[in-house]
């Protein structure tokens, strides 16, 4: 990579960028996407909520969301195969539609990632507190979250190879803690019939009926099946990226769905007092299920494994966010772009990584003062990611209508247009579910997702129209250097 020539951007404002090293293979790229997707984190974080909302039938959202996001992943796969460029959604949207459109899509995605990292860190902190048996006060959880974020930043700053190593460790922890444990529970501790998967067990009582209750539990699946795009966020660090990134994305969703289904089935069919979980009598059900099946020591072992997997998820999220910020900054699209577009001797965008840790730390402080809003900001994060995803899907569909045919080494061929259309339909349905007003006493409680989206999009538009960052970009040579089929 090289900075822009003097006649386009002044030397003082042009980001100084260097070349990434291609050290990530297919397994590491898949592990990165899988640990970011992290079925364990989604299940552990939202199992209790989904059971109280819709009961055991909530499990079907795992399959629904996996099928829908597989359509999206195949759209991304075609785009990433032709444009294997660091930053993922931002360069894809830019090349498919334009600079302004890409800026807004990536801006929404950026803040959704920030809030997602915060959410995972906060959920992880509760497991750390449980492991070390200290009180889960707001200050204790804040301190734990801060330490976890700083620890993962240190690992990320140490180099891409260490990122790949920890991602692989996290992958195996996910496999052990979701698939192996789920199979063990199903074989040796099953107490419930399969029929309970169609029984809401009283969770859907009320005037709204089961359909409404089932829709409200959609967050279990919607929260789980994103993260596969991280495989493309590090494209310039992947060997044979045009072929391997699409495969890694698809594998992330496929194995994520299998592991999540086995895990949730194990929890549901092994616990004898399932009604106590659905009624909310047991507020933290997974430790109770593990303790019932494995005893205290067995529960501790699997909590340790779960924490490692969650830390790997934070690590992957930070890596994805830092590459997005780097990609933005390489095009001189953000304040401080010159500083954030630097790559360290460890071949990491270290300054962008520092920002990727600092922003979630600020959101952690907000959660400290407003702890009841953690579930709501999680919904905001997922909605933001779904919107930015669908902006890329829409851009790809528009480009196809104009005659574009994906020219990378991985393509769906004549099925691409239909897949693209179905992916857009699924995404709009998911956005609708995420933006439906929540229950609450105040306006902000009910509309926090749309309010958050309006604030983020509004601030982005104001900056876009006033600062006009799209006029300050570099020569864009990296788009030619890393595009296939041009």
From TrEMBL:
PANTHER family from the UniProt entry: AMINO-ACID PERMEASE BAT1 (PTHR45649), OS04G0435100 PROTEIN (PTHR45649:SF26)
Keywords attached to this entry: Membrane, Transmembrane, Transmembrane helix, Transport
Protein name: APC family permease
Topology versus the membrane: Multi-pass membrane protein
Pfam families linked: AA_permease_2
Record organism: Tatumella terrea
Record-linked Gene3D superfamilies: Amino acid/polyamine transporter I
InterPro entries the UniProt entry points to: AA/rel_permease1
Transmembrane residue ranges: 30-53, 59-80, 101-121, 141-157, 169-189, 209-235, 247-269, 301-326, 347-369, 375-397, 417-440, 446-465
Keyword Transmembrane helix attributed: yes
Principal localisation: membrane
Compartments where found: Membrane
Domain of life of the source: Bacteria
